[in-house]
Amino acid sequence: MTNKKQQLIYLAAASHSGSTMTAMLLGAHPDLCSVGELKAVNLGEKESYLCSCKTLVSECGFWQGVTQKMADKGHDFCISEAGTDIKTDATPYVLRLLKPLVRSPLMEFVRDTLLCCSPVWRKNLPLLQKRNADYARSIAEQAGVDIVVDSSKIGIRLKYLLKNPDLDVKVIWVVRDGRGVSLAYKNPSEFADAKNPTLRGGGAGKTQEQGRGIEVGAYEWVRCNQETEAVLATMPKKNWIQVHYEDICNNTEQTLDTLFNFIGVDPAKKRLDFKTVEHHVVGNGMRLDDSEVIQLDDRWKTLLSEEELQTYYQVTGDYHSRLGYLE
Description:
Rossmann fold
């Protein structure tokens, strides 16, 4: 077993911020591999769930290879029950402590202290850390690359990945206009899943996520981005970068060059025909769309009412402009 740390690029973002598209654009580079969210929860109905190669994930050769490589490392692994989420096998006590988003160093010290009072947490955390590192390493080995992209987004997962002794983590903070994010929360089927209705829900033909409204979307947009900021404050600036979804869409080549230079791979090898490249991604439904047209989705401009926009601004306050957006 090598002692070399596995390189991991973590996409931190609020839900519906374009992380799947970003991950697939990065994963199209020959020196990177993205399989979507490595936390791999809520994949949908096992019998119908499709890999982005349009094969049932249970029959996909790539995932069969990853499963075998995990077995070689001593893990009983199946992508449908990956067991890589930080909350895996958590007791109710631990779940309560893991629920709040990452906040100030003092609050995180309190959280960690209380977690250490749980014998189950003390036992499980090293096992989860090893499983996550071996999972990333197995993906890299199967894809024949050195660097893996994880688009799991959430800050609490990132917090513990940064403490994983077997991982070398860099972070890309993907920010999207919160009005677009809120519209996706309002109608996930239309704005956050495959365009083909028969492929929604990973192939089940129905979107699992239910609409939750503009106010909820705005609230989550603020909370998740603030959580990312709290985690990034603990990192050296050279290990993280912020990128806007709008720049990825409108200035794709230049933005990708910046990201690949940050990662440390040759930008000249980028592929804009990212859907042509073989991918084995699980997660957001857009991975199953055939189109590789990179186009800004700003439908919120015509589909959000004045009343909905006012609700959004009341929730987000000056944080909306702080992240670079104007009314």
